[in-house]
Task: inverse folding
């Protein structure tokens, strides 16, 4: 059988095609994973390519269909000579299955072999007709390349053969790889003679007919027989009936199919009816060949079951085929459904019968071993911790457990203790001792200053103020302090009253503080307070001395608790005084309790003694020094804008203060300046300078090309053409020197005339030299004329001598004159021509 795709089948079709299952022939198998690309080979162990399934056990080899030979009409020896023409008709009536391309056939004899297939028409009845010769033996062979015939799992194919209109063989198509049929063609055709029916057929009126499904026949039968109960014939032309397979049944005769047993039932071979699965077994699928045993952890508690049931938590089965589940035994559990084992309860837990979970031991109980069915109570003097219920533990020192079943020990209460482990009760603390914490294992003696007179105390009583307890473990009343002494609570000794206090009787709970205005001297017996003298005071209770009044205060009577403050306009200059003093003129106090008089600040003044308010302020334009009794006007060149000014300010640069109004400074006007502070008036800007805006601290010098020719100017003037200034701060412009010129206004330099030009003084441009004159250097103040015997050809260069044959009789010529007829000049530079001799 195959391992995943059903019994006896393999995939056929190869990679890239739609796979389908084919029945593997007995004795063949495929190995590996994937698809078989074709049918297995008869003579090899494996198929080619990649495969998926195994064919393991072969069923019993079926009896092959017998070779059918039609009943002869006459016995004749076959003709050995082939005839020229053949007039008998052989027909193949073929119904194809779902894979017609796998089907081929042939008809062979010594004469004229024929064949057909493969086909393409699926599930179609086809008729193949062949003319054959009489007197010959023939062999018909049909083959299926997939070795699964043409019926059953992959279609409902079949075929039968006719010779001259008579059926000589029929097949249900269940022939595996193939089958053969041998027959004899008679010499002549006798249409009146009907051959005997072949196997699986019966005789009709004029020919043999196939037995219908549900019936069978042997060779030469004239009727078909119904299959008995438990058997069936699925196809027509069956020669025998098949047994119903395990898991199937046939309850009637003449059946063409076996029915599957329903879920919960099964059957043996050739069953007439199905039987219920017994207790502990089940059958999930229809047609189950046997009932399955219930798995471990499952049960089947009724006959005819189609499924198994999980054991519920708390129950289990440890073997297959159980009809009931076992309850978990006490001390064990089954925590989940479908369990095949039980788990032991851990220490500290227990369980009863049929439990799915262990129960923790209750408070005060324990289980020291696994698989406990119950927990034990803790003994008296012991307990079981909630964090560990696997054992009991003795109560620790300072705790006890009075009875069994404790989950914790009780701490000994205050005033009691337990010295040993495992105590069932606590002891009271003795008189003179105490236990101040719960859970104590010891008692403690009262320390000095404390006592107890009874047992079972959680604390010692402190000695009250005025009493003492001198020793530890004291169990009687405390001792009283003597007169003049006292004590704090819980004192082990008495003490003298503190400084500033007194005690008049013995056992005083406290010392009394001296009242305000009184004191208790450190040197006295501290029984009575003493009043403070004049000039001193005692501000609070408990003074051991009186304090002198501080500066600014005084007392004029005894037993004072506060000192009086000096009134405004008065002061007390040192400590311990009994009266205040009035402030002098120029000084004041505006609040009480002052030790000195305040001086009037600069800008203020106090005109009379005993002044008790703010000093007067000086008027604007006035000021004063410290402790002033009056104000004075500001000095010349200074001012005081506000009243009470502590000083007068000097006029700042660019400003002045008028002697007629010293309350503000005034800015200098345009053209005026003030170079420093404290000016009474502003000065005019000198020649060559100007002040364009007010508040000038200095005058600006006229820049080169400009000038200022008057005092107090607010703007400079621009030099005109022909004039210039090369330095700043000039009061006039310089004229251009001869040989130079200034071409534009506001010039800061002059320019030289070029060669061939000249200029006089103060010119804005240069003139070209006249004809016959020249200037061979730049910056010429005038041009020179050519002398007699020479001429000026280029006004930028010196004159040239007249060439031979010419002359220049006078100065200032720009060319020489040719000698006239009858005269000549034999040398250059001639002034006159000579007459010919």
Result:
């Amino acid at each position: 059988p195959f391992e995943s795709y059903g019994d006896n089948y393999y995939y056929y079709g190869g990679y890239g095609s739609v796979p389908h299952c084919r029945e593997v022939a007995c004795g063949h198998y495929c190995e590996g994973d994937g698809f078989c690309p074709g049918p297995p080979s008869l003579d090899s162990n494996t198929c080619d390519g990649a495969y998926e399934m195994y064919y393991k056990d072969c069923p019993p080899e079926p009896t092959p269909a017998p070779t059918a030979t039609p009943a002869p009409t006459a016995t004749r020896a076959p003709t050995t000579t082939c005839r020229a023409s053949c007039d008998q008709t052989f027909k193949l009536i073929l119904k194809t299955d779902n894979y017609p391309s796998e089907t081929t056939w042939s008809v062979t004899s010594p004469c004229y072999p024929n064949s057909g297939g493969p086909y393409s028409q699926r599930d179609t009845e086809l008729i193949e007709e062949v003319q054959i010769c009489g007197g010959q033996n023939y062999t018909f062979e049909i083959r299926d390349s997939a070795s699964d015939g043409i019926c059953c799992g992959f279609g409902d194919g079949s075929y039968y053969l006719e010779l001259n209109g008579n059926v000589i063989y029929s097949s249900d198509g269940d022939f595996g790889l193939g089958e053969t049929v041998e027959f004899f063609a008679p010499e002549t055709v006798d249409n009146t003679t009907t051959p005997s029916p072949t196997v699986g057929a019966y005789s009709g009126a004029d020919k043999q007919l196939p037995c219908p499904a549900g019936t069978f026949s042997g060779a030469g039968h004239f009727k078909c027989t119904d299959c008995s109960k438990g058997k069936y014939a699925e196809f027509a032309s069956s020669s025998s009936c098949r047994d119903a397979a395990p898991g199937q049944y046939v309850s009637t005769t003449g059946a063409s199919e076996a029915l599957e047993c329903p879920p919960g039932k099964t059957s043996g071979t050739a069953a007439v009816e199905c039987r219920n699965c017994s207790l502990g077994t089940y059958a999930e699928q229809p047609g189950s060949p046997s009932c399955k045993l219930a798995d471990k952890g499952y049960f089947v508690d009724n006959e005819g079951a189609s499924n198994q049931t999980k054991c519920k938590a708390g129950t289990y089965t440890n073997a297959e085929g159980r009809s009931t589940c076992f309850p978990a035994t006490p001390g064990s559990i089954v925590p989940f459904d479908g369990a095949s084992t039980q788990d032991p309860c851990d220490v500290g837990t227990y369980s009863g019968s049929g439990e799915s979970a262990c129960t923790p031991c209750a408070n005060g109980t324990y289980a020291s071993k696994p698989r406990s069915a119950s927990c034990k109570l803790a003994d008296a003097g012991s307990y079981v911790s909630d964090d560990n219920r696997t054992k009991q533990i003795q109560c620790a020192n300072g705790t006890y457990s009075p009875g069994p079943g404790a989950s914790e020990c009780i701490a000994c209460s205050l005033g009691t203790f337990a010295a040993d482990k495992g105590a069932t009760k606590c002891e009271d603390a003795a008189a003179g001792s105490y236990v101040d914490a719960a859970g104590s294992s010891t008692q403690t003696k009262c320390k000095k200053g404390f006592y107890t007179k009874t047992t079972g105390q959680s604390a010692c009583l402190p000695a009250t103020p005025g009493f003492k307890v001198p020793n530890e473990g004291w169990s009687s009343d405390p001792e009283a302090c003597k007169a003049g002494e006292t004590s704090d609570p819980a004192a082990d000794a008495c003490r003298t009253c503190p400084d500033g206090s007194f005690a008049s009787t013995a056992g005083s709970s406290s010392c009394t503080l001296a009242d305000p205005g009184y004191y208790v001297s450190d040197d006295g017996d501290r029984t009575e307070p003493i009043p403070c003298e004049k000039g001193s005071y005692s501000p609070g209770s408990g003074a051991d001395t009186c304090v002198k009044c501080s500066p600014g205060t005084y007392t004029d009577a005894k037993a004072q608790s506060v000192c009086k403050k000096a009134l405004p306009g008065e002061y007390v200059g040192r400590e311990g005084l009994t009266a205040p003093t009035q402030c002098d003129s120029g000084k004041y106090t505006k609040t009480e309790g002052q030790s000195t008089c305040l001086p009037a600040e600069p800008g203020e003044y106090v005109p009379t003694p005993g002044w008790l308010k703010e000093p007067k302020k000086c008027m604007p334009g006035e000021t004063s020094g410290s402790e002033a009794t009056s104000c004075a006007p500001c000095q010349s060149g200074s001012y005081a804008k506000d009243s009470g000014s502590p000083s007068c300010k000097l006029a700042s640069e660019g400003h002045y203060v008028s002697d007629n109004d010293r309350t503000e400074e005034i800015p200098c006007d345009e053209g005026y300046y003030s170079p420093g502070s404290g000016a009474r008036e502003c000065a005019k800007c000198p020649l060559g300078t100007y002040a364009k805006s007010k508040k000038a601290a200095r005058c600006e010098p006229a820049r080169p090309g400009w000038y200022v020719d008057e005092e107090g100017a607010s703007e400079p003037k621009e030099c005109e053409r022909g004039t210039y200034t090369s330095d700043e701060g000039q009061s006039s412009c310089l004229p251009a020197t001869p040989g130079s010129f200034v071409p534009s206004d506001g010039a800061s330099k002059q320019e030289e005339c070029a060669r061939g030009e000249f200029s006089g003084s103060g010119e804005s441009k240069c003139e070209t030299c006249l004809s016959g004159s020249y200037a061979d250097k730049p910056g010429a103040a005038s041009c020179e004329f050519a002398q007699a015997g020479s001429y000026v050809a280029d006004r930028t260069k010196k004159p040239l001598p007249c060439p031979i044959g010419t002359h220049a009789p006078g100065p200032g010529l720009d060319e020489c004159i040719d000698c006239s007829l009858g005269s000549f000049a034999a040398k250059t530079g001639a002034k006159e021509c000579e007459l010919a001799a």
